[in-house]
UniProtKB/TrEMBL annotation:
Gene3D superfamilies, sorted: Nucleoside phosphorylase domain
Limits of the Nucleoside phosphorylase domain: 28-241
Protein name per the record: Uridine phosphorylase
InterPro entries on file: Nucleoside_phosphorylase_d, Nucleoside_phosphorylase_sf
Length: 249
């Protein structure tokens, strides 16, 4: 008897949200929040081709120094980003580097410097619906070492440590617990890394994250301006570090 599954032509299958076919991407994937950043990275690749631009998810294939790389934007916030990470993994992603921006917790890492995140605090809601409390959100150790190896070759300042993944960007009457996390050892805050680390570990793939600091997490986000030259320079530096890391993975 014919099984229902046999009637589905897998070559015609398309992932519902990122709108990419399984197998159409590289195993080496860079993920970024901003579709414009995805395009900018695509501009640095040879023979770049946009595979899809669906919702906030823009996916570009290209070649960096002879290595096939895919770049995808995942938008802002863990739930939407998680959809992207899951579908990228279904499409064939095995080594994922998040190239993001974050707010700093410390004067030792001023705007314009970088954080390489060995771990993320799960201060968001998405992973709580997926795995129990206490499950850590951690980087792949090998990818972390390789990423730091490349960062050391540059003269940009970076810190290696924990980043906090939050859901809210603009505060309400409830204050963000930034000071508590800072005193607990975190270096900065962003909005998607914990989801990436938890999902990568769950699905058996590897991931790491690097962040350009675009301000201080404690400051009033109504004055947020991530478009300063020093931040643009740091974003370019982390893109270069991520691309060079892909060559040795
Ligand atoms: O610059 P990206 O990669 O989007 O990362 C950070 O910037 C966004 C907020 O402006 C959030 O997505 C946060 O995680
Ligand atoms: O989530 C983010 C991203 C960049 N800068 C911040 O302060 N927070």
């Amino acid at each position: 008897m014919t099984e229902w599954g046999e009637l589905v032509d897998k070559t015609e299958m398309i992932l519902p949200n990122i709108k990419v076919k399984p197998g159409a991407i590289s195993e080496h994937v860079i993920v970024v929040g901003d579709p414009e950043r995805a395009r900018a990275i695509g501009d640095q690749l040879d023979n770049a081709e946009e595979l899809a631009y669906s919702r906030e998810y823009r996916t570009i294939n290209g070649w960096y120094k002879g290595k096939k790389i895919t770049v995808t934007s995942h938008g802002v916030g863990s739930p939407g980003a998680a959809v992207c990470f899951e579908e990228l993994i279904k499409a064939g992603a095995k080594k994922i580097i998040r190239v993001g921006t974050a707010g700093s917790y410390t004067d030792e890492l001023p705007p314009g410097s970088l954080i390489i995140a060995d771990s993320a605090v799960r201060a968001e809601g998405l992973t709580k619906q997926m795995v129990p409390d206490g499950v850590p959100a951690v980087a792949d150790f090998n990818m972390l070492l390789k990423l730091e190896e490349q960062a050391k070759k540059t003269n940009i300042k970076y810190g290696l440590g924990t980043i906090v993944t939050l859901d809210a960007f603009y505060a309400g009457p409830v204050q963000f617990p930034h000071m508590l996390y800072k005193e607990s050892g975190a270096l900065g805050a962003e909005m998607e890394l914990a989801a990436l680390y938890v999902i990568a570990r769950l699905r058996g793939v590897s991931a790491v994250g690097i962040f350009a600091l675009d301000g201080y997490a404690f400051s009033d986000m109504n004055d947020y301006n991530p478009h300063k030259d020093s931040v643009k320079k740091a974003i370019q530096a982390e893109i270069d570090i991520a691309l060079e890391t892909m060559l040795i993975l």
